[in-house]
Amino acid sequence: MFYKSLIVFDKKIDLKASLFSGQSFLWIIIDSDGQYYATVISDTVIIIRQLSDYEIEVMSSSHSINGYIISDFMYKYFSVDVDVKSILSDYFSYRYPELFCAIQGFLSIKVLRQDPYETLITFMCAQGIGMHLIRKQVSMITQAYGEKKSITLSGKEIILHTFPTPEKLSAVDPLLLSTCTNNNRIRATNIVLAAQAVADGKIDLKALANPAIPLADLRNTLCQNRGIGFKIADCIALFGLGRFDAFPIDTHVKQYLATWFNSTTALRPLTPARYLLLDAEARTFLNPELAGYAGHILFHCWRKEIKKLQSF
DNA sequence: CTCCAGGTGGCGA
DNA sequence: TCGCCACATGGA
Fold it and tell me: Residues of A from 121 to 160 whose C-beta is within 7 A of strand C: which are they?
């Protein structure tokens, strides 16, 4: 039933941290040891396990995804092509030696190249609430409106759900959907509108994936939609459109910019104007081409080492 | 009980 | 433009 393959990377990856750090809520832990993770990508069920720092084992219900063979897809999905060493320049290690030391343990986290549409919807669920509730919302949306997939591993049956298509979500009554969005009707309405826009082609994610589009233009285009501000737009760009230059600024990033980089701007309330100011500030000490990738590393170092948060 | 969590949009000054 | 508030829930 499953196609099994061993995938060897030339760059170290931390599977669990990567899968659960990049807003990739559709990955779930399916065994008590926390070794196997499962999801559905484009109708293909994926089960994955880390064998070593450089190897993963993949079991999939199809030998390919979107025309790519599994190993090629995974290589791209985990952005193994990105050289993490180039993310933080020599200047950075010289300027912030203690911080550079602290983030060493987080360099094996990968920013995934996830599906743009799924990223768009899931990040619309992430507004001013905890990670636990965000995951819950996405999980409920897939269970209520996604396609059911059943798999068997070691004799145990596991139920997974695909992410509902734009067409499916756009036809849902917002009041009904709000039971999946923390009872927030505004958010539910915005999600339905966004799904409609994707279905109609008003949001053309294929076109927006063009890397030649300036980041500011991309952000402004995404912000035309209700429920998407600068932060969510940057998240869609970073995690869904492979724009590693996009630097989302949330409450945690704001905190570490103030503490680690002495930004006085970050001490004040985050208005749109200050968002852009902080964005520009960050690019003075991070490689602008990979600012978002670096930000993701710093983000998780801040949460784990300073805030002592358990969940990814 | 209060505060905060991967924010956004409406409002008045 | 800026500050304040509603939106909503749950964990610390």
Answer: 127-130, 132-133
- Which bases in strand B are touched by protein, i.e. have an atom under 7 Å from a CB? 4-9
Q: Which amino acid is at A290?
A: L
CA of A7 to C1' of C8 (A): 43
A293 within 8 A of A244, measured Cβ to Cβ? yes
A112-122 per-residue burial string, b: 16 or more CB within 10 A, e: under 16: bbbbbbbbbbb
DSSP string computed for A172-234: S-HHHHGGGTTT-HHHHHHHHHHHHHHHHTSS-HHHHT-TTS-HHHHHHHHTTSTT--HHHHH
Query: What is the CB-side half-sphere exposure of residue A72 using CA atoms within 13 A?
Result: 7
CA of A186 to C1' of C1 (A): 25
Q: Helix, strand, or coil here: A293?
A: helix
Q: Is it the case that residue A22 has pLDDT exceeding 80?
A: no
Q: Which residue in this structure is represented by tokens 């409106």?
A: A145
Using one digit for the tens of pLDDT, what is the confidence trace for A67-83? 999 999 999 999 999 98
Q: Distance between CA A262 and CA A265 in Å, rounded?
A: 9
